[in-house]
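Reply to thread "Modeling small-molecule complexes from scratch"

Following up on the discussion above, here's a worked example others can learn from. I took a protein sequence and the SMILES for zinc ion and predicted the complex. Inputs first:
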Amino acid sequence: MKKINKIFWRTIFASCLLLANFNIPIVSAQTLGDLKQELAEFKAEYEKNKQEQQLTESELKQAKQEINTIEINIVNAQQQIANLNNEIEQLTIEIENKEAEIEDILVFFQVASGENAYLEYAFGAKDFTDFIYRLAVSEQLTSYNEDLVTEYKQNIEDNKKKTEELAQKQIELANERTALEKKVAEISVRVDKLDEYGLSIEEQIKAQENEIKIYEEAGCKDSDDLNACIAQATPYDTEFWLPLEIGQVTGWAEPRYNPVTGNYEMHHGVDMSRSNANSTDYAIYPIANGVVTNIIDLEVASSGRYVRSCGGRKVFVQHNINGKIYTSAYWHLRAINVEVGQVVSKMTQIGVMGGNPATDYWDKDSYGNFCTTGAHLHLELSDRKVSAGDGYSSYRAGFIAPQYVLDFPNKYVYWYSRY
Ligand SMILES: [Zn+2]
């Protein structure tokens, strides 16, 4: 916890030094009109900085390292919270079992008519041998009973402590995220693109424009509350399913040595595949009902090279799960079957799995290196919109390791049902 605080403050301090001259709105839009206003301001700021004050290579490198550190802390906290949740679940089951055992003993007492139950039981013996036996059983039963009550109390205490730990972890996680979001917001106007994997500023601006259009088409006016607009435009659902009918996980969302760059960094999504994926067109489905808020498709630069870097074609779907907003992203798609603004259900095919280096030649980084070793789906999840108006890259700041939310089997174990 101390370490997290140190990193948190160091990041805030470094951010202040780095960007003391910039006045970037980090306040969330209240209405649709505010969102439009923020987008206009952001565009103006970005255009101005594009000419004048882009980050130097070393500034960018430093900022990326800081973001990476925070991201690793976030995913570690997510893992610890998931582990704590499991432990609490186990403890709850144990306590329920103990309660059942205690219940059984109480029933015995009642049947045996009260406080002298053990004695009555012992004196009910047929002969002396039986008496000795019954006495021994009574003794065991009494101490067993006491042990049970002690253990039961201990379990409740443990459970309380774990719950407190969990609450503390969640606060730490929220702080880390705020730091990350500020960091991303502050540097985003001064770079064209943070890395080979994230959205470029221009893509984020386009995503924000798409989103505004979606809310307007859903009937929202400038004076309307933004959260109400989001809820209105985003189909409701209650749970996540898996995005493939059949598949296996080949990589979790966790820090790793990037196979392309060799750097130790966050892998933001879960990778999954299926046999013969290079040569078969496997359907990709959204993990919940939602609305398509953004699509990154192939674009050819004047040089004849593909503009898009790692991930190739991508689809972003915004969800409303029990009133909470999420965005899921699907990368390396060989084909896309949906359009921006389209409402999708869990049964709507959104694309085809791709990323075969031999045929899907578009899936390369800007240095011309292949981004994949074989066709697979890279699935990302965020607990916010693609662009939130208070950071424009905060979709990434809100990332959740999908393995803590979706019900995947273990790595390399096939599933045959999406739920
Ligand atoms: Zn991946």
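What I'd highlight from this example: The CA atoms of residues 256 and 369 lie 18 Å apart. The helical segments are 2-18, 32-52, 57-111, 117-123, 128-188, 201-217, 226-233, 394-397. Questions welcome below.
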